[in-house]
Protein: AMP-binding protein
Organism: Vibrio barjaei
Amino acid sequence: MNRPHNTHQTLAHLLGTSKIGEDIVAFDMEKQWTWQQFLHDIRATSDLLEHSTSQRVAVCTLDSYQFAVGFLACCHAGKSVVLPGNYQNAALTELSSQFDLLLHDAGVEPVSSKPCERVAIDSHFENLKPFPVLDLKQAEIILFTSGSSGTPKAIVKTLEHLDTEIAILESIWGNLLGNALVESTVSHQHIYGLLFRVLWPLCTGRAFACRNLEYPEQVMSHASANRVLVSSPALLKRLSTQTDSAEIRALFSSGGPLPYDAAKHANGLFGQLPIEVYGSTETGGIAYKQQYSLNEFWRLFPGIEAKLNHEQCLKLKSPHIDADNWYQTADACVFHDEQRFELKGRTDRIVKIEEKRISLVEVEKRLDQLDWIYESAVFCCHDKQRLSLNAAIVLTPAGLDKLESLGKGKFWLLLRAELRQWIEPIAVPRRFRVVAEIPLNSQGKRQVSELEKLFTDSL
């Protein structure tokens, strides 16, 4: 798979480039997919979509090659691409009003209750028509993130936003990556994986892995001087059990803060400090750093303007958000010069656990919709160096009866099972306490300190 590194192509012209048909687009342990096969698969799927009246297409795949096929087929068929970030059936069903057609691969089971068109990604096509130049401003991509209301929030972007960010990434790290192969431990359904493991490699001729690496042992066995790893703090922290070193071309981390000790350990393993990227679904990439020292500051990406509002929260003007207007974040920070700053935490009720963005409001909403619960209060706690959620709950009469009949242990298991229909396991509270009422202060705001006292004993 070694070949000269191709020059950067825009998403507009990507499928019309004169790439060699045998160039490798993607790979797994058994197979490689060539550029010629890639074009044929996109054309086959695009033709199917062009015959559909559905406009909003949800792309849900486990395989990153199939995802790339579906994503670009939607764009060339003139469809809006909807990217659900959660495969849980109940959550996907709840999101069903946001899409008309579900495009999936064999790794994703379609939701049985979804009354919409379903299309499996095709890979059989004989006649290849040329692809037109894409209008990047018109190609719409809809991602979802946890909103402060507790309902998944739709974030609308265009291919132009993504293309602009890809050009920035290549300008900073293109020479470092060269013709390296791209491996990943993160999902392509979210913006970090979408950009770093699929679209950026496609636009620069770097082959990417179809499947995630999930375990530290896999990461170490796949490491080589010609491979890049797109990862997260959750996985990098787990590398603490590894002691044998291995070469790697570059290592990226995003999704949450990476502890300094984890960064140092990764440097000892790979001879490379992780390149950490700070951003969000709404903003895309904002800044980056490598922890050469404990108090390393973030550095803004080229082309991004930043300032603080009266609450000392970051405001941004960026070509991959909105080139003309300021975007307000809930991230408190301190600037040390025009380009460098340090983060001081979030000021809303969105938290990150194991790099998953979790809305505390949403978890409370899912609890409160159960017949057994009248009201709930969910908050974060640090338990043996691990961040997790606790929930204080006020039970309804039906809930009191259920608790008495099952006992606490089985009742907590029942609550967790119900929540897992809606939210990812990492967002399910680890501990519950039953209270007569949620403690409030004189302003009617919840007293977190009083809630925390309920959990000082261990189960």
Notes: The two ends are 53 Å apart (CA to CA). The chain has three domains: 1-162+169-212, 243-348, 351-453. The mean pLDDT is 88. The first strand starts at residue 24 and ends at 27.
